[in-house]
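Lecture 7, part 2: worked example. A protein chain together with adenosine monophosphate.
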Amino acid sequence: MKNILVVGGGGREHAIIMKLAESKHVDKIFCAPGNGGISKYAECFNVSATDVDGIVALAKKIKPDMVVVAPDDPLVLGMVDALQAEGFMTFGPKANAAIIEGSKVFSKELMKKYNIPTAFYEVFTESDKAIDYLKKQNSYPAVIKADGLALGKGVIIAQNEEEAVQAVHDMIDDLKFGKSSARIVIEEYLTGPEVSVLSFTDGKTLVPMISSMDHKRALDGDKGLNTGGMGTVSPNPCYTEEIAKECMEKIFLPTMNAMNAEGRTFEGCLYFGLMITPNGPKVIEYNCRFGDPETQVVLPMLDADLYEIFEAIYNHELDKVDIKWHSGACACVVMASGGYPESYPKGIVMNGFDDRGQTADCFVYHAGTKLGENGEFLTNGGRVIGVTAKGCDLSEALNTAYKGVSRISFDGAHFRKDIGHKALEILS
Ligand code: AMP
Ligand code: GLY
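Predicted complex, written out as C-alpha cells:
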C-alpha cells in the first residue's frame, strides 16, 4: 500500500485526494498545505505549495511513495525536478515542460512552429511598439496577455483603444503582474463556445479526459468580474465526437509531439482550453496541470484507479492502463465569500456540514476553509467550497448539487444560480 503527498490546498487538490482515497493501492494521504475540508481526508502540513525547499524537506521527513504536485506555480518553479533529484516518484511535469503554461510567448511560438490552430498574435516588450500595433490593427475587442503566470488575471479583453492602451501601460510600464508582464502577447479575438479538455500524458500516449465547461464570470448570465471559476459541468455538450476527433488529430497529439521534438517531454495532466470557432477548434490556453474547478467535475466521472494512472505516467506505461468514464453528468457549484472576486472577509462560521465537511449525495470540495478552535468550519478564501454531484443526466446532477448548496450557509455566501443553464439549452 502506498502513501501519497499531494501539494496544494484548494478544491482541485481536495478532488484529487478524494479520488486517490478510492484507490485500492493507496493507504495514507498527506497534503501541504491543505485546508479545513482536506484535513478530514489527509494529514495536512503547514508548508506552502510554492516553497520548493520546504516541500522537499517535508517529503524527506514523511517519505511518501509518490508526490503529486497540483498547482501551476510550483510546477513552473521546478518542484518536480527537485523532488526527482531526491529520488521521489512524482506526478506533474518538469519545469522545462511546465513552461507551456508558464510562458504564453513560449506556447504561442510552439503552436506557430508546429501548425497547431490558435489565434494570430504578436509579442511585445516595449509599450510604444505595442500601442502602434494596436492602432494599426484598429480591431476591437483586442486580447492582451501577460507572458507569465498572473493568478489567472493576466488576460485583458479590451473593448476599445483606451482600454487597450491602459492595459499595455499597466503590464509593460507599471509591471502590474511583476516580471510576468514585462513581455506581452497581443492576439486576435476569437469567438465561439469554450471547452476545457484535460488529458493524461506520459509523452508517448495521450488520453483526453471527459470534457467540461467552466463558468468564469462572478454573476448569473455571465455578468460581473472574471473569477477563478464559479462552477463547472461535465461533459460539455458543445464537444461533439466529431470535434473531439479533430482536436485529437490537430491539437492534442501535435502538442505532445511538439513538446517531445523540443526536448521538453510533458508528463502529467496537460490542460487544453479550447474555443470552438466557426473555423474549427483553436487553443486559447494550455495549462500544465489539472484545471480548477474542472477537476471537481472530471475526476468523479473517472471509472479507473487514479493512482494506477499516475504511476503509469511516471513509468511511461500509460498505454497499459484502461481509462474509462462513467455515463451521466457531473455538476459543481462554487459558493464564494461575500465580495469575491474583490475583497472579502475571512473566518466566518459555516453551517450545514456533517463532521467531515460534507453533505448528503454530494462531494463537497473545500477550496478555502479552515477549522476553528472547536473544530467548526470557517471560511478562509474567496472561493470557499465547490458543491458537486453526479446524476444520470445534467438536470439530475444540477438538482442534487443545488440541493446540497441550499443546506450549507455562511454570512455573505454567494453562488451562481445558473450553472449548467447554457449546457442544458444546448442539450434541449
Ligand atoms: P485565460 O486566462 O488564458 O484562460 O483567458 C481567460 C479568458 O479570456 C478565456 O477563458 C477566454 O474566455 C478569454 N480569451 C482568452 N483569449 C481569447 C481570445 N484570443 N479570444 C477571445 N477570448 C479570449
Ligand atoms: N479553470 C481554469 C483553470 O484552471 O485555469
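The longest strand covers residues 268-277. The CA atoms of residues 5 and 62 lie 9 Å apart. Keep this in mind for problem set question 3.
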